[in-house]
Amino acid sequence: MTPARRVVTLPPTLLGEDAVRFARDGQRRGADVLEIRTDLHAPDAISPEALAAVLPLLVSERGKPLPATWVAAAWRVDRDLMDASGQQASLAAPPGKLLASHHASRQLSTEEALQLWERELPADALVKHVEPMTDPAHLVTLLETQRRMVERFGATRVTVLGMGAVALPTRALLAQNNVLDYVAAGGAWVAAPGQRLLDDAVRALRGADRSTVAPPLRLGILGTSIVHSRSPRIHRQPFDRIDLPEDGPVEAVVDALLPHYGGFAVTSPFKLRLAKHTGSSLDAINTLVRRGGRWEAFNTDTFGARTVLERLGAREVFVLGDGGATSALRSVAAELSCDLRVLRRADIQAPLTGAGVWTWPDRVPAPDDLRFDGARVAVIAYGAPGRRIAAEIVRRGGTPVLLGAAWFIAQARRQRQLWESAT
């Protein structure tokens, strides 16, 4: 199967030369196609000819008509099967350029989806079917819809996509048999919820290219605000960064993905919830490993916790927060003859001294009255979140000790060993 072409969409804030620079950056990082949409850019805000000189151009009609100059420069012209009133719309496009698409307003059964595609299409037209995903279990239906559409139109023409807060792993699986893979370039703006990052999609493809045997079961990381996670960069591919809302249905997500993934890294805020969901005897877990028809849960954070407490080298350590990381610290503290004092927000009254560990995610604001009196405070986040936490510690009178990478590497080595045993 030929890998899907990776499509990035031009953000609405980029015009003129900035748009061309975006296209060049996307090409350098592995994008294959640039999409421009009529709902995002005015006809004269960009130069389709200049953009098409960098990447093949996909022009998409969304609400406003496509300018003739866009169509002339395009590699493909995306027109929707239906108009706003639900009637069949015009699919006019130059020969060899049509991409017929449909964006459903709700989840459809496979039979409902196929009925939409009874319309006669040119033999060289690409077809794209998109549905919202409110239920992670809808993955099964979308995979069947894709299979049936490939039977009807051929393997070189079909793209099926899910869209929504829980759609990312579904899109990763569908991409294996899609013609186009719509991905996010990065930053705060995305063309549609549920898109994978371009860098992750490229990394996964390169990992698959190195495989000399059948593709392995996928791996992934589950968390909230995990754009800076290093896990996709150090573990074997394909490894998906599955960023879910804090109140997202993570339990239903892991259940739906059981047939397709060999394991997951689990990070904040899902360590406690998935421990309960999997029936683990642990208070918090950070690793799931597939064992036939079930998930087995582990907490390799204990390896990271041990490393951090050894590096701090203190007999008494305060801990800010009482989540999954704190559970790991508790489990190893006694072995290291370390007395832990776990502080919740309401417990913090006087300036803190000595040595401590900050376990709150950087997206969670610290209490206003938190102060340090020369305390050494271990930071177990890394990357930009770790730097932000370190700056906050300094602002409040403490000395940050950056141990996020040490924690991460220690626990990740153990995760890798566990995933290799997945069945």
Automatic annotation (TrEMBL):
Record protein name field: Shikimate 5-dehydrogenase
Gene3D superfamilies: Aldolase class I, Leucine Dehydrogenase, chain A, domain 1
Domain of life from the UniProt record: Bacteria
Species assigned in the record: Myxococcus virescens
Biological-process GO terms, alphabetical: chorismate biosynthetic process; shikimate metabolic process
InterPro entries per the UniProt record, alphabetical: Aldolase_TIM, Aminoacid_DH-like_N_sf, Shikimate_DH_fam
GO molecular function: shikimate 3-dehydrogenase (NADP+) activity
